[in-house]
Structure formats: structure tokens, C-alpha cells
Amino acid sequence: MDVQLTLGELLDRAVRLFPDREIVTKQPDGDRHRYTYGEAGARINQLAHALDELGVESGERVATVALNHYRHFELYFAPPCSGRSIHMCNMRLPDEHFQYIINDAADRVVFVDPAFIEKIEANADAFETVEQYVVLADDVPKTSLSPVVAYEDLIEGQPTEYDWPAIDESDECGTCYTSGTTGKPKGVSYSHRGVYLHSMMSGHTDTNGISQRDTVLPVVPMFHANGWGVPYAATFVGAKQVLPGVHTDPGPVAELIDDEGVTMSAAVPTIWLEMAEYLDDNPDVDISNIDRLTVGGAAPPESLIRRYDEEYDAPIIQGWGMTETSPLGTMSTLRKELEDRDPEERYAYRAKAGIPVPGFRTRIIDDDDEEVPADDETMGELTVRAPWVADTYHDRPSANRESFTEDGWLRTGDIATHDEQGYIDIVDRTKDVIKSGGEWISSVELENELMAHDAVTEATVIAVAHEKWQERPLACVVTGEHEVTADELRDHLGERFPDWWLPDEFEFLDEIPRTSTGKFDKMALRERLDDATVDTKP
Amino acid sequence: MDVQLTLGELLDRAVRLFPDREIVTKQPDGDRHRYTYGEAGARINQLAHALDELGVESGERVATVALNHYRHFELYFAPPCSGRSIHMCNMRLPDEHFQYIINDAADRVVFVDPAFIEKIEANADAFETVEQYVVLADDVPKTSLSPVVAYEDLIEGQPTEYDWPAIDESDECGTCYTSGTTGKPKGVSYSHRGVYLHSMMSGHTDTNGISQRDTVLPVVPMFHANGWGVPYAATFVGAKQVLPGVHTDPGPVAELIDDEGVTMSAAVPTIWLEMAEYLDDNPDVDISNIDRLTVGGAAPPESLIRRYDEEYDAPIIQGWGMTETSPLGTMSTLRKELEDRDPEERYAYRAKAGIPVPGFRTRIIDDDDEEVPADDETMGELTVRAPWVADTYHDRPSANRESFTEDGWLRTGDIATHDEQGYIDIVDRTKDVIKSGGEWISSVELENELMAHDAVTEATVIAVAHEKWQERPLACVVTGEHEVTADELRDHLGERFPDWWLPDEFEFLDEIPRTSTGKFDKMALRERLDDATVDTKP
Question: What are the residue boundaries of the AMP-dependent synthetase/ligase domain, all occurrences included (chains A, B) (predicted)?
């Protein structure tokens, strides 16, 4: 049967089969908003009618500048199901980039949380296509934006039924921009087909396994790559959803987990690191509902995985992905063969990026585009292919030439190894790997080992130019209240790595600069330390 | 990305990520053949080369007349991945129908198990398109078939690599014929896309949840609707597969479950009923590896589900589907809301056909094509729609007109109710429902209640013509060694059903005739009892 794979199929299933399941939002004032898929479905229909009235045409985009809450959830469906597209914006982008993405996407309407109105006001003059602002609230606060309307006023009185148009599965349902560390953000289109398949895959037993039995809490922002697909996958199966809004600190998240019976949550490692410390200080808080935690955005330290197993019986499963991949590509579920291995070995596998999920192909290639051996050692660039991977960036021919192979695989820019069990280990970014004397040194591995030292709280390793060896590693460390010398750290690294891997210089900093997505900003560091002199030892 | 959803994606994943996982076959002589996905992949490539040499063109079909074993598994992939199609034949069809399906499918090659050579010999003269016979064995036994070759000779020496062609996902990968109780079998096409999506769905946590951790044993024949999709879904995730060949009696199946660590198995209810009796007599046999059992083809009695829970901690999950639906459409997984209900209620839900799986839509309609209320009572015809549901029968315009609604839904021919939790209950076949005085009587519900009587081992209820009421129910029962009278059975039914539902006549038979797929053959019974006189009581 010619049944198109569209987001309408996901929503329709939730509304028909799970009309009474809840979507709970912690609002800015701390109160919880509760409603059901049935009620959400009616409001999504109202929103679609409102988009009709605003004159947003089929194929056009609306922007959201919003955290995780029920109105953003409605925007995940109304535009795409009615033939438009949702552009999820990262409000932490620098103004110049923020203006660029709104203009590049040609957004017609901007839906904005009250908390981010100032950001919009500061940039509105530069928006070229925006005709309407909608504040995601009951009322419009004092603002210079115009024309502006409150979301509730926008949809009030609209019919709660909508006759959805036929949608082609290849149509865009959403768009996100990658906040690269260099150059302008690049726009990625998601198709209905891609998100449908990603959602089906996210319920697969060998991946996130999101099920009708789950209560999910995406801490990951909904403006990051479809909230890692959690809101869509949860809707497909009718899972209860808990949306934390602005309350993403460990205390409020733990409270939501406890109160709402959350079984699955997804976030960057930092959140779970902070959560563990919070739980140590608050032994009365109970997160035992948790069945599993999905971690992405950066590799979780092995020690964190171990801690959640031992203290909370909450397995951390690492997922790897990127904006271009919808995002899920690999997951570090433990293969059956490895279940009987000793704990050290099991944790080493689980700390890797994982094995490709069903439907996702990977190929790690060297400079000659040949696949590198699965020896857990040889590095190459990870290239990927799947129905939910973007095949182009919006209007960026040179980025497209660089980022895709001739036979249509995405070059991820990640340097990886793979082993005979099929596990992929991300050892660096192509831009961060240190090329010393024709050999590659993984900055990530050095960083992890530095952070495993008791005295080090943060560490990042960058390449600095070197006359003889082309590049050499330089380590930037934050030690907090502990004291440690460069020699001690070099000795620590020397226990695991060959001499020529060891950084020649150590910079002791008060803090490491971060990008808008919270990652260490190596570009800023490189600029700051550009003229760092390196005494050659090798 | 334009990644076509094809069977090559499934196979490639197993061969790349799970090359050492086993596929175990119990051979006719009782020995077990063991090999891996890696080895299977190489032989599949050899078979594809052999098909090239035989001159089977792209888009053409080859027939299999075979049980569940590794060579049949290879045929599940080599024809479709190389652009052809596999026609899985039910060798239990009457000769006339068997000849019809081979000719209708225009099969070029027939792959046949040694056990079924006689069936082929008896029909070969009537085959219009077959040019080659291949015996699925090391050697060709004495046979009148010509030209004929042994499977092992066919593939021996062929290259173990094959350059797979690009396949469009809408291309046919396989075909099956429905063995209807009336008329000629109807041919159903499966597309690569449909089987890919069905396989992804079959790994979903809310369905069969087939995972890399599983060892699966499909007792359901591979010639029935893709073996209910088990071999394909298992390959997608790299699960170990155990194929029982001719050894589908309880003893050998239990032994395989025990020895091979089978975690998931799929079969009709009869198998598990017989298995329970076998286990009672053989307390040393251990099936505790089993994590869940999928049951389809007919509704399992509630008592069977209860028994497997209590005695073997092996939940029976009912699935509903048909040849036209690939086949999985609904599954009776217990909704979270119902987990705390009392056992009686839980078992009542689990004995229903279940809720639609993700991606599958259902609509139960009355004679005016209006959806019937979800009141667990009002009957209507179940109509369905999904990317893995056939939208046509081969060259059967009148069947197509009857079987599909104007807006493209399949009329299943099943009479069903649905309830407010979304569970569908199949209460009858459109052809079997008894229309008495303008009201409908469910033959299935009467049968189930009769079979719940201690004295009754088998029961079926058919409609007989009646002057005043149009149709009235007539019950055919097999009582085995127990004695019971018609009045006693009528009283038994009277405890649950209204007077006008109670059969007017009871026929006590030695056995109930069965169709080629093992179901009660109501058509044969109707013919035999055509002139049964019915004393009117109502």
C-alpha cells in the first residue's frame, strides 16, 4: 500500500490509542501543566488553523525559540502535519549567526518563549522574512516586537478538527542548523520519512526501546536535533512525556523523575554528573523509577557509567549522532557476546560510541577512502548513510562538496576506530586530531585520561604548530582547589600513552571557554594560545 | 538521503556486525547443521550467481516448496537482493490450487525439499513456466523431474561475492498466496519497503521486540507469510536463529529450546497446547530460556495463556495478521494502564487480538462504512492500512473490488469489536458469522465457550439455513472419551449467552475436518451438513 511515512501517522496513533496518556510540563513558575494526547491533538489542530489564517504557505517554515514544554510539543506537529516545516532555533547562538539562520530559513513566523524575547528584540531588525511574532504564553509581555500575539490568543476559538492534507514523505517536516565551531551555521532538512523511520527505530529493543510502558523526560533541548527524536518516538508509542521547561538543574529533574515515575531520560553527560552529586547530598530523593539513561552530545566517562550502575541501578547507554543524522546513529548497548566478560571489559565497550542502530550504516575511511581495519586502533573518518541522514546543507555548495562523499555518504568529521565486535570509538574530531610527524594523536583520549586524574576537573588538548613535527599537543587544565604540576600530569599520561603523545606544554587555566552548546571551545583556545611556544622533547 | 528500504540493508547488517552469530537447522536425519551469518552471506551470494546462470531475469519469480531450514533462509535473500522475487508455496494446497499458484506466479525455477518431490512430480505436467527444478539437498534422489539439480551442486564453485544491483524499494521481494476457504488462492505481493518496515517494527519494544540478545525459533512455516516476518526481523538485528525443519512436534521443539537457548518462538496455539502436555509428561525438559511466545493464526484460549504464565513464566503474546498484512497487524501486549488490574481482567485483554502495532492503522466499520463505537460489543468488519499491507491481488479484479475500500483500506473479512483501551477482538469471519433474524451471532465465541467445557476437545459452529430466521447456529463437537449431552452443552452456553444465540442442533463427530493450513474447515462441514434439519426453538 502506498502509505506515506509521515508525522501524521505518529500523532494519529497517539490520539486514537492513547488519548488519556499525559504530557506534563514544569512551567517557569514551578507549577506543572498537565494534559493528554487527546487534548494536545485538539490544540495541534487549532494551531494548524491559526497557521492557515496567518497565511503560512505549504512548504514554508516557522521558527521556534523555545525550551521543552507542551506548546513547543504542539509546534512539533502542527506545522509539519499541515504541510509546513518547523525550524527549531538554538537561542544560544551569537547574534550574527542567529540572524543568519532565521533569514536563511526564510521563517515567516517566530514562536518565542517569554524568556527569550530580549534575544529576538535585539535581532528583529535584521530579520528579512518574519511577519509575525507569537509569544508562547497566555499573554504578551511588554515588548517592542510587532506584530505580536500570545499563543493562547492565536489558537483560541479555532476549530479542534483539521482536515490534514496529503503529505509526501520526502517533504521537509523540520529544519535545524548545526552550530559548527567555524563559519556560519549550516541548515539541515529533516523529511517526514526520515523522522518516521528514526521514531520507529527509537522504539527498537536494541536502541532507546521507547515503549508505551515508558515515561520519558528529554532534558536534551527540543531545539537540538528533534530533541534527539524523543518527543516523536514517545508520541508514536503513546508514552507519557515529562517536559522540564527551564528546570533542568539536577534538583528539579530528580524531583520530576521521582514524582512522575520517569523511566527513561536523555541528556548530555554533565547533567548526570551533576545529578549524582546532587543525589549524594540529598539521599531522600529517589530516582529508582529510572530504567535507563541515554547520553549523547559527548562521551560519558566510564566512571560515570559505573557509578549509575552501582548506585542507582540505572544503566547509562551512550548514543552517538549529530544534527545531520536526526540524530541517532550508534548506541553502546552491550552485545550478548560480551555479557559474560569481566566488568572492566564490559565498561570499556559501554564507554564507546556503540554499534550502528538498525537501518544505519557506517564506514570508517582513511585518506584514500578505503575502509580501515576493525582492529580497535587504526583511525579514520567516520562516514555514515541512513534514510534519516541529511544529504545536503541548505544552499551551501562548498560545504556540500566537503561533507559528502561522491557515492553519497556523509563525512561526519569525527575520527574513529572500530573493533571486531562492531563498536565504534570516536577518538577525535578531524579538526581537533593532532597530526604529529605523520602520525595522529587523539586529543580526546589525552583529555579523558587527564580528567581521570584526581586533581583535574576539566581538561582539553589542542594542537599547536611545530616546526619539526608540524603539530604538537598542548594541554589546558583546570585543577580547582587541588595542586598538581605539569610533570606529575605528564607522568600520569605516560602510564597509558607513548612518549610522543605526551603534551609538551601544560597551561593551567581558571576555566575553559565553551561554545554555545556547552562544549569546550577549542577554536577560542587556539586563538588565545596561538603564539604558545612549545619546547620540543620528542 | 535517498536510501532505499531493501532487504539488502537487513542482510548487510547481519553479515557486517554479526558474522559469527549462528543459524542452526535441525535436519531431517536429526543432526543439526550450524553455520553463521557470515557463511550464510557467502552462500547467498553464490546462489545469486547461480540464478544469473539459470537466466532468471530481474523481476521474475522462483518458487520454494520447503520447510524451515538454512537453505530456505538463503532463498529468503538471494532472489530479492538480486532483483528477483521468492514465491513461498504452501505444499499442503490441493493439487489444482498448487498448479494454479505456480502458473499464476509464472515461476521459472522450483526449489523443493526432498520430502515434497512427490507433490511436485504429481503436478509438474501442469506447470507452464517452470524450466528448472532444484532439490534442496546435497544430492538429487531418484525422480522424474527434469531438468533437476541438487542445490549444493547448483551453488558450488560460484563466487562468494556478488555486486548487488540497486533495487527500488517498491519492487516485489516475495509473494504468497492466500489459501482461502473458497475459490482459487489469491496472490499477494510483498515489497522490499514493506518487509523492511515490518522487520523494523518487529524489533519494536511494543511488538515482538526481536533483539540481538534473542535466539528465535520460528515454528510457523517459512511458507506462511514470510514466516510471520521472524527470519527477516531476526536477521536485521543479528539474532541467533533456530530452524526446526520437519521436527515441529513438541518433543523436538522443546529439546531445541532447551539446547540452543531459545528466547522467543512463534507458532499457532495448537503447538503450545501440545507442548504443555508434553512438558507435563517430561518434567526433565526445561524451556526456561523462553522469554515470550508469539501466537497467531488463531486465538489462543485464555487458559493457555494463564498456564504458560503460571507453569513456565513464559508470556504468550497474541498477534493478529493475515497473508495480506505481511502479517503482523495487532499484538495483545498489556497496556501499562492494565498492569494493576486483577488477573481475570488482564487475561481477558491478553486473549484479544490486541492493539495495532506502530505503523498499522485499523478501522472497524459497519455496513455503511461508518466506524463502530469502541464499546467492546458492536461488531463490524476490520479494515486495515499500513505500508506493509498489500493493495491488490495478482490479476484478480473482482477480488480486488471486493477486498479493498474505495479509499484504499483492506477489508480483512474478519468481524471484530474494539474497546476503549484500543484492543481489537476478532469475533468471527464475515463468512462465518451467523446472521439470525437481523442480528449477528459470533460462531467463534460459541466455539470458545464450548471448548472451555471439560468434555469437549474440539468444537466448531456453523450457520445453517433457516426459513424464519435466515440462519441458525449448528454446533459440531468432538468429545473424545467424555460423555456429554446436547442439553448439557446448551445449558453450559446458556450461562454466558442469550437464548437466541444457543445452537439448535449439536452434531457429535469423531473429528472435525481441517483445511490445508490446519484450521477447521467450515466449508466442508457446511457441505456435509447441508441438509441438516434445524428444529426451531426461538
Answer: 12-394
Q: Which domains does chain A have, with CATH numbers?
A: 7-181 (3.40.50.12780), 249-431 (3.40.50.12780), 434-528 (3.30.300.30)
Neighbour tally for B437: CB within 10 Å: 13
* CB-based contact B212 A333, cutoff 8 Å: yes
Chain A environment of B361 (Cβ under 8 Å): 9, 12-13
A53 is catalytic: no
Q: How far apart are CA A175 and CA B13, in angstroms?
A: 29
Determine the pLDDT at residue A430. Answer: 79
Query: Is B79 within 8 Å of B97 (Cβ atoms)?
Result: no
Which residue in chain A has the smallest CA separation from B17? A422
**Closest Cα of chain A to B348: distance in Å?**
18
Q: Judge: A205–B200 Cβ closer than 8 Å, yes or no.
A: no
**Per-residue pLDDT tens digits for A150-174:** 999 999 999 999 999 999 999 999 9
pTM of the model: 0.89
pLDDT in tens, B3-53: 999 999 999 999 999 999 999 999 999 999 999 999 999 999 999 999 999
B419 exposure class (CB count in 10 Å sphere: 0-12, 13-18, 19+): middle
Tell whether B2 is within 8 A of chain A (Cβ).
yes
Is residue A211 within 8 angstroms of chain B, CB to CB? Answer: yes
Contact between residue A314 and residue A308 where contact means Cβ atoms under 8 Å apart? yes
Q: What is the DSSP letter of B326?
A: S
Cis amide linkage into residue A231, ω under 30° from 0 = no
Closest to B244 measured CA to CA, from B210, B214, B267: B267
Q: How confident is the model at residue A395 (pLDDT cuts 50, 70, 90)?
A: confident
Residues of A in contact with B13 (CB under 8 A): 356, 358, 361
